[in-house]
What does this fold into?
Amino acid sequence: MMRQFLPALRLTLVMTVLTGLVYPALITGMARMLFPRQAAGSLIERDGHVVASELIGQKFTRPEYFHGRPSAAGDGYDAANSGGSNLGPTSRKLADRVRADVAAFRKENPAVKGPLPADLVTASASGLDPDISPESAYLQVDRVAAARHVAAQRVRQIVDAHVEGRQLGFLGEPRVNVVRLNLALDAGLR
Amino acid sequence: MYSNGFFLVTVFFLAVLAATKPMGAYMAQVFEGRRTFLHPLIRPLERLVYRLCGVEEEREQIWTQYAGAMLMFSIVPLLLTYLIERLQGWLPFNPQGFGSKLMPPDLAFNTAASFTTNTNWQAYVPETTVSYFTNMVGLATHNFFSAAVGIAIAVALVRGFARHSAQRIGNFWVDVTRATLYVLLPLSVVFALVLVSQGVIQNFSPYTVVKTVEGGTQTIAQGPVASQEAIKMLGTNGGGFFNANSAHPFENPTPLTNFLQTFSIFLIPAGLTYTFGRMVKDTRQGWALFGAMSVLFLAGVGVTMWAEQSGNPVLADLGVRQDATATQPGGNMEGKEVRFGIPASALFAVVTTDASCGAVNSMHDSFTPLGGLVPLVNIQLGEVVFGGVGAGLYGMLMFAILAVFIAGLMVGRTPEYLGKKIEQKEVKMVMLAALVLAGAILIPAAASSVAQFAKNSYLNPPGVAAANTNNGGPHGLSEMLYAYTSAAGNNGSAFAGINANTPWYNLTIGMSMLIGRFLMIIPLLAVAGSLAAKKMIPVSAGTLPTHNGLFVALLVGVVVIVGALTYFPALALGPIVEHLLMYQRVLWS
It folds into this structure.
């Protein structure tokens, strides 16, 4: 077996240079040339500073903004510490958390009756989910409109414009990107 | 949305089916040393590699030399990775200044073993622990190496069937080099660029600090993600650049990237079934394996998708709506992303555990009991449903040998497969591989469920080993069982609530990974050597055909029965009892 040691060492070094340095450098160079915005994280600027990545969810708590899903990343939407709750279906902690979130949502949105959509009160896998379901957005329209002193109809129109359907007609689920929606609200309604 | 889920699975399956023949034919060309359309570009590079490494291309090896080379090409990179991890504080591409203290010896060993064995179990949180250099040079390189080794082993075993009265089963160095240069690298380059176009990041910037819309601050992790993401999926490795793995929007930003990632897990393993058929000069044999794999795949997807869409009755009681409508996905959304919803999350979970990938786009720990049972069982069956690159094919061939042996026992004839007599030695080696897997899962899982440690002890600071689980009751047992199943099966996915970053878990899980990899490969190489030496016996009236529906059914039966007999007691105490208790509304702290 020792006869195999030298070829193993040499192949390890050659392949490490090729797949560990040359390959990622090549991809980085091509990505920067072909898709510079995506390669840098799809960052959005407002008033001259970076305000968000359109792919990464943010924590929203004020009534005039649409709220995203509960997040288990760090202390909420920590984009340097991603992850889910990893609570199982028979976890008391999960049941308690959902109960509290359901109550809080009903308090903030007193007009909402009936059961809440599952995505609105469950933590995402990444803790950085930028999206909510269209239903979860529509349920917040009245609150956002009231907080901004505008007609609900105008807010609803902005939500409508931000509903993305399934990609290619069958992939994934209909969704609303909360960060882009809130930025559009700020831009469109004062 | 069952109809949408059904449509998704149909399109996915047809895509895999369509890719199998071209991919498989191409790989057969590569490993038989014939000219491919990439030769003008890659052949000079291949020659250069041989020259730099002192490899004689034409010189083939007997099985013990082949196994020795494989071991050396595992040990040397493992040690290199261990060094890189321990020294990362002094190495470049480390804008966040992650020091070596973050990678203590037990964690560095676990991680090096994990990536060497194609497991990609991650006991650390990547974005708070490892530098870009460690990710690229220490870890992602193994995504190529371990995948290439898997393919090489599968090809060597296939040569064992294809050759007769021969001593040699190929040249390990050549097989590994060709797998990397002709198969893994070109696919990765193309796939990585497609991923970037959809939003996967690729840069060496420090983490971006943004002033958020509401005026707070958010630090966004960056890095060379796309290059690692592509080989992570194509090589069925699964080790994420971020803790959330393929659920992280920077790893998997859109439903399209998600579909392509799911597809890329199966691309090479499915193709290898055709490569196998080509090399043994009877493509029906490859399609029979493909058929058996498809049956198990579709059954798994059906159960998981149904279980996850049915949701969690405990949440329904709290006023949560879990039926799908046109404007919301419904189902068990804890630990899932809205852009994927239930069908694409369930499909991914099944595919990643059918294969030995272990990437996740949703948190398996938060699945319903039956939805989480399927990934667990998939790994325990040996990941033979298309399986890891190479590993799936050699695992399924192991079961095929077992199946003809059992059929032979039933009718009282000497079993044969592909014109080779299956005798004592082959069956012994195959049984050894099967038992080693079960032992490396069940023994340490049982030990962890009872192991006693003092609080703040070196081996396990939280105290008893069972205290590291994030969930009580049967789900806690499932977390431990899943950890060792994932390790020994070289999968790498997790019921991730368990705190496995303690010396006890790092060392035992690390050992399970090494045992599950090498004590499986070495017996199979022995089988390859022994088969290659045998004479080819002609087909007679007494030969059991191994390319028809009867054999597919027999093969599926053997896989399921061996798995069920081995793991049913453990599963009954974990997910099965949890399912029953969930409908009784029994909760655990």
Strands of chain B lie at 208-211, 217-220, 320-321, 416-417, 420-421.
